Amino acid sequence: MSPAPSPARTRALTAAVLTGLLVAALPTAPGAAAPAATTVEATEAAARHRPTPPHVVGDKTVPVYSYADAIRESVWVETRADSDGDGVRDRVAVDLVRPREAAAAGVRVPVIMDASPYYLCCGRGNESERKTYDAAGVIAKAPLFYDNYFVPRGYAFAAVDLAGTARSTGCEDVGGPAEVGSAKAVVDWLNGRARAFTADGRPVGAAWSTGRVGMIGKSWDGSVANGVAATGVPGLATIVPISAISSWYDYMRYQGVLRSADYPGYLHSYVNGRTDEACADVLARLRADSAEETGDYNGFWAQRDYRPDAGRVRASVFVAHGVNDLNVTTSQFARWWQELAEQGVPRKLWLYQAGHEDPFDVRRAEWVNSLHRWFDYWLQGLRNGVMDEPRVDLETAPGTWTTQRDWPAPGTRPVRVALGAGDGVTGTLGGRGARPGRAQAYVDESLTEAELVAEPSTATAGRLVFLSGALAAPVRISGSPSVRLRVRVDRPTTELTARLVDYGTAERIRYDSSEGVRTLNTESCWGASTAADDACYRDTEEITEVSDHAVLTRGWLDAAHHRSLRFSTPLRPDRWYTVTVPLNAYDALVPAGHVLGLVLGQSDPEFTETDDRDATVRVDLGRSELILPLAGRAGLPAVDVAPRVVTAPADPSAARTTRATRQVP
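Now predict its structure.
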């Protein structure tokens, strides 16, 4: 469970943001610079006398500005980097949409910003929208609904092409300093600390901006928001990272195990908007510095790990993530969330049952309303009570939502669950467990996930299975489980995998099919439209099925990295080692009558790549355990013999392809 946040720091951060909002909201003449910082007393006094802008009614913004007549323009912001080594600082393209009437009246507006590598190569959102431009090169369509919805409500929208992508110069360094710095430079420009130019080279400022910026984005876009927040850049008031990365090492390496070969190079090439020659040196460095031959965490990955800099975050954070996301796994949000909590960062969380999905396609109306209120509070300074509500919105079953005070669920505690030998085929979870020294062995068979977890009461080479008794009451798992194993391995290393499985019939989200969301033929509209950029999107619904079991969460470890991810320690075949396999964070209520299972395997070709196969692993059951984060009083029943569990046999057609190990965030 995350430690309690520091109330003093939370109050200080919130007060600083709101003070800045009061200053920034003061109307200015067009072209005037932002007012200097002042005392809280003077700011509040000025705020009492300032006129309410027309887009604010009570405690919310309303659509009063014309979207069709909005100012649309492109600028190129100069960064501090020369990532392509051409002797000229990189310039990132920023396409802006902002209310014309507010500009004419001298009413400055905050900015919602989505910085992405995908705007021209690949598209954004469920319908893969790309930017389009008119004959003069002016932005005509920005993907997603943010500009359609928020510009009429007194916001500007900035769609930023990251360095080395689309219309920007420089080179993509995949989560690194050039990428993060390119988005940070835009925040700096919006606050008068960086230069920008029009297409014909004329300098251009952003006096129309309050300087308050909210970054939002799914997947890679949201990862950039995390990275920029971790720089502590002034002016970034909030971020909304959706299914986002907080450590690129953990995205491309699973505890020392390669997720896919040449992953940084693949991602660079996937989004590269420059010629191959322009960024050849950057690509070569990505491949050379990422330590693929060892799987080690090194300086390259430290540059792409935002969690240690959580203490620098000045922005509030609204996280959204699917608990069944197999692309950007849940450890990405959970470890970031914990670091933010320790620093007292104001935050909010949505967790839902789908996979790698945007909540806009899971719970659309409620998401838009929540986002609207969040931005109104943090960017417009409207005291609408959003921070007085429960911090977490949680989908507990398909279409069933609840709220709670925090995450993990308040009262969650680590529960150590013993492993027992059972009948020699299927082991047990819970009760006294085996005596120390009682061991079982298994040989790597490179099983698929379906083969690993189906028919757990049947002997299957290549796995060890442990089952609880039938649950007497529902059991709530909330947080990050782990498995502590005492092992002896006959090779210098092997991949160790663990899966936590819910055995029992229930209706579940089919996150292996379109991430658990089906696109319908109907549409709903979220904002104003033009002929080039409509605000209407096809509706969606969750895909569900009734199944007799489901994998809740997974974990991987290269055994030679059991001491540290920074170096490997080859195993000796005559020695026993204690290793911990961390599982991805999860939240689930396992129903009464169901059986909880732990399944151990080795090489995992659907999820990872390794040449370390065919090992024999002996597990000392009496010195091994499952550690579960449980909320409430219910736990696992004591059991000496595992119950017999029958499932449908493994379906070979359900196997993920090897290609799926190399996804794009």
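The CA atoms of residues 116 and 221 lie 5 Å apart.
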